[in-house]
Recover the amino acids of this structure.
């Protein structure tokens, strides 16, 4: 038996982490995390826009028992566009959006009955299973949070 609350809590970790970035030095916020890698603001934008996409095309639709509009598409293009989007926002605007969208996801996940968590929900050209989505996003969140946290050794200006 899966533990719905534990799964939902794994999605909440990103909220407190994102909030902690408000005090990040501006130089660190805009510095690439490594050679050929994104900056922190690019990562936050990337995560927020993926959250928004899944919220609009899958999570909210499962909650309302509507057909999913989730589809396979150009992931690399989406990620490039996410980085551009984030550069046009202030740190607070971007973090506000990231926190707000993830809170919406968590709210919807809590409202979805547990029996829907392991059900296969058909989408345009793919499938959506809440437990798989949460596992993937928890890994994705941890990956990016660890990348950002590794920058803490950078001296503050």
């Amino acid at each position: 038996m899966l533990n719905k609350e534990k799964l939902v809590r794994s999605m909440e970790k990103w909220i407190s982490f994102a909030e902690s970035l408000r005090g990040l030095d501006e130089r660190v916020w805009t510095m690439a995390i490594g050679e050929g890698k994104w900056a922190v603001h690019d990562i936050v934008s990337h995560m927020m826009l993926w959250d928004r996409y899944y919220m609009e095309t899958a999570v909210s639709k499962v909650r309302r028992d509507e057909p999913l509009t989730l589809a396979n598409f150009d992931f690399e293009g989406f990620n490039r566009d996410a980085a551009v989007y984030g550069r046009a926002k202030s740190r607070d605007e971007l973090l506000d959006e990231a926190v707000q969208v993830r809170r919406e996801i968590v709210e919807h996940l809590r409202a979805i009955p547990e029996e829907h968590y392991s059900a296969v929900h058909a989408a345009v050209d793919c499938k959506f299973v809440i437990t798989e989505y949460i596992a993937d996003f928890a890994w994705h969140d941890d990956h990016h949070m660890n990348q950002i946290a590794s920058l803490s050794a950078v001296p503050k200006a």
About this structure: The first helix runs from residue 4 to 20. The first strand starts at residue 121 and ends at 122. Confidence is low (pLDDT under 50) at residues 153-157. Strands lie at 121-122, 127-128.
